[in-house]
Amino acid sequence: MSASAPQPTPDKDPTGADAPAKTSKRRRNKKPWSNKKFLAVWIPVVAIIAVVAIGANVAIGYWRTAIESYMGTGTYFHRQH
After folding, report:
1. Which domain of life does the protein's organism represent (predicted)?
2. Pair 71, 65: CB distance under 8 Å
3. Is 39 helix (H, G, I), strand (E, B) or coil?
């Protein structure tokens, strides 16, 4: 009995990897986004995230002592009249 190399099957390439999955008709006909369209969507998203991040940073700075006291790390200074 002699050992022979395994023969590739139709659904596998010679390296033994699986064949690429079939793409749907809708995905094959899908055109890539233009740079103009991509930027028209991406710039507002990044701008909103930046505004929220800056607003959160300002709010945390404004309420710092209250937040630190709530978390148990700060000190609360009470003014006496």
Report:
1. Bacteria
2. no
3. helix
Per DSSP, the three-state class of 32 is coil
**What's the rounded Cα separation, in Å, for the pair 64 and 73?**
11
Q: Does residue 17 register a pLDDT over 70?
A: no
Q: Where are the alpha helices (DSSP H) in 14-34?
A: 25-28
CA 24: distance to chain centroid?
A: 25
Report the phi/psi class of residue 16: left, alpha or beta, with left for phi > 0 and alpha for psi in -120 to 50: left
Domain assignments of the chain as residue spans, ordered by start = 46-72
Q: pTM of the full predicted structure? A: 0.50
